[in-house]
What we know:
Elements: E1 2-3, E2 10-11, H1 15-19, E3 23-28, E4 32-37, E5 46-51, E6 57-61, H2 62-69, E7 74-75, H3 78-84
Antiparallel strand pairs: 1-2, 3-4, 3-7, 4-5, 5-6
Amino acid sequence: MYKNPTTNLTEYETFDELLNADVLFITExxxxxxxxxxxxxxxxxxxxxxxxxxxxxxxxxYTDYLVDVIDHAVPVDLQFLKRAG
Length: 85
């Protein structure tokens, strides 16, 4: 986890860092977990994506999540993931 010098926003590098962040919601589909962290600024508009197989962390814009993911993703309990991880 580090502060991006350009945006001054926190960038997460591991699944564990995301699980310990201020999580608003987590959903999943067959391949990924989608984690929305409390925004640090008004324009902080991302949902973190964690590949279930590789645990690689990336992000998509929240609007893309709403258009492409939300219809087929199901909610996941944060405490369940923390215990399982």
